[in-house]
Structure formats: structure tokens, C-alpha cells
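Session log. Operator J.P. requested a structure for one protein chain; no other inputs attached. Running the standard single-chain path with C-alpha cell output.
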Amino acid sequence: LTGAGDKAFVAGADINELATQTPVAGKEFALAGQAVFDSIERLGKPVIAAVHGYALGGGCELAMACTFRIASENAVLGQPEVKLGIIPGYGGSQRLPRLVGKGRALQILLTGDMVPAAEALRIGLVNQVVPQAELMSTVESIARKIMANAPVALRLCIEAVNRGMEMTTDEGQFLEASLFGLCCATDDMKEGTRSFLEKRPPDFKGR
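Structure written below.
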């Protein structure tokens, strides 16, 4: 998932539209955006954010909803909503501390400061930083590696991590064991183990 052109991944919301929000409309606006971003996070397939240029406000929230983030050296992320008298509405106050920790998240949220790519990498907001000219080739290379693996296992791995983040360690491990058991019932598991023993590439079917 990336932005068109070279200037921005997503620059953020239309301020003219935000300026006219009533309390009820504002809540509905936020809930609608959250539903879209939740659907990306829960898609069951990896979604890689290829972040270049500005990823501010809703743009940063969109990137955080993706499975992980690869950024170009010119990327700038941030949640500047407090400068407009509002808070993040599309999940930013929830996903940011899960990625970078409570203290760092609050500093970013309360100052509204922009976070350059190198700093975003240091604090764990992005996974990797590459030259802008290499951004898409890097993301495509990672995507090809992922696509070579078993689709069902990928989906269940994402589910284990996403749902497990909301559980205790014991609950999360029980979920993991249950999903592991589901994997053992798949044709992909049979093909994966067989191909390994036969020393050949697997031919996964996603079932």
C-alpha cells in the first residue's frame, strides 16, 4: 500500500471538512475510519505500507494499521492532531503505543511533532528505511518472500499476533496452540513438511 506521486504516502485529512464536524458527526466520522483501518489490519493477508514523503494524521494511522511498514529516507510520520484541537480518530492513540511504547507515543501525540524516517526506525514505528529509489523494489522483494509461504499459515500467524496482543500470555499461548492445531489439518501443512523432506520447493494451495 503506497501513495501516488513522490510527495506523500497520505498527508492527512481535509482540514476544511474537519472544521465543520459536530460532536455526533465527528464520532461517526471517526468510527467509519476506524472500521476501514480495522478491516486492513484484520484482512488475513499481509499488507505492507510503503511509506514515502508525508504520513501524517490519518496517513500515519493508515500505515500503523498495515502489517508492517517500510519507509523511504524522506518519509516523515506523525500525529499532529493536537495542533488542530483534536485527537487522533482512526486508531492512532491505540496503535501507536502498541508499536513504540506508552511514553514515546504520548510524546509524539502531545507535541504533535513530526518523526523523520531514521527516528521512526529507531523507536520501532517503521521496520526498515531504504533510499526512496529502492522503496518499491524492497517492498516487492519482501512480498515475494512472504508469498512463497503457506497462505493459511500466514493468515493464522497474523491472527495469533493481533488477537494475542489483547490477551494475557497464557490466553495468547492457548490461542496459538489452537491455531497450530488448525494448521495441522491443512493440505498446506502436509505439502510443506513433505516438500522439506523431499528437498524441493513447496507448492502451497492455500487450503
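Operator note: The chain has a mean pLDDT of 93.
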